[in-house]
């Protein structure tokens, strides 16, 4: 029988709102927005830490996120430990290949996986990405450059895209 993962989590501030960072012994297993569309249950969070500095992985992640928000970091180095299906991992791997400052459509991701008919499944897997920002599901927009759903909310998605210099279609903006 597999040994249970020791999970722990802490809140960190960001310019887009508080983020909950979850870590296992192997890496970051989740970054969740305050009003996350698919909020994690207690079994996904583990022990609550008093601050990100109470754990080396959580602290490293919080530091790298702060650097990203300040514009000094474009790639992350903290190890990851996302839990999901084989297909979800394939989608998340494709997301991780989208460079900072670029975007892709769901159809482009489906084609990269070998079948344009996977577009809806790609969208579902994208929406279930547990590691917001670092696995950049926010970089996936509509084929017409419109904003599409985001677990952290469309305002957070728009903030992240603009932070990276990506401007969605004018009619799709919230402001």
Descriptors:
alpha/beta; Arc Repressor Mutant, subunit A; four-stranded mixed beta sheet; two-stranded parallel sheet; 6 strands; DNA damage
Explain this structure:
The protein has helices at residues 42-45, 56-70, 86-96, 106-112, 119-127, 154-163; strands at 8-12, 19-23, 28-33, 47-48, 104-105, 140-141. It is of the alpha/beta class and 175 residues long. The protein has 2 domains: 6-68, Double Stranded RNA Binding Domain, CATH 3.30.160; 84-162, Winged helix-like DNA-binding domain superfamily/Winged helix DNA-binding domain (Arc Repressor Mutant, subunit A). The strands form 2 sheets. The protein has a 4-stranded mixed sheet, covered by helices on one side. The protein has a two-stranded parallel ribbon with strand order 5-6.
Count of separate DSSP helical elements:
6
Distance between the termini: 52 Å
Topology as H/E string? EEEHEHHEHHEH
Low-confidence stretches: none
What is the CA-atom radius of gyration, in angstroms? 16 Å
The global form is: globular
Strand count? 6
Q: State mean pLDDT (0 to 100 scale).
A: 91
Q: How many separate structural domains? A: 2
| Major sheet summary line | 4 strands, mixed
- Structural class, by secondary structure, is alpha/beta
């Amino acid at each position: 029988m597999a040994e249970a993962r020791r999970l722990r989590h802490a809140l960190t501030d960001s310019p887009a709102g508080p983020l909950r960072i979850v870590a296992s012994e192997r890496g970051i297993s989740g970054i969740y927005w305050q009003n996350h569309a698919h909020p994690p249950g207690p079994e996904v969070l583990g022990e609550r830490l008093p601050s990100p500095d109470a754990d080396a992985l959580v602290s490293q992640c919080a530091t790298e996120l702060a650097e990203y928000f300040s514009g000094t970091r474009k790639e992350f180095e903290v190890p990851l430990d996302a839990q999901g299906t084989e297909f979800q991992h394939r989608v998340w791997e494709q997301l991780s290949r989208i460079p900072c400052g670029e975007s892709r459509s769901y159809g482009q991701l489906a084609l990269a996986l070998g079948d344009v008919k996977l577009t809806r499944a790609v969208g579902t897997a994208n929406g279930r990405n547990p590691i917001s920002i670092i696995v950049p599901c926010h970089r996936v927009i509509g084929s017409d450059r419109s904003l599409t759903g985001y677990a952290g909310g469309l305002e957070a998605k728009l903030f992240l895209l603009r932070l990276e210099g990506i401007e969605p279609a004018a009619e799709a903006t919230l402001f």
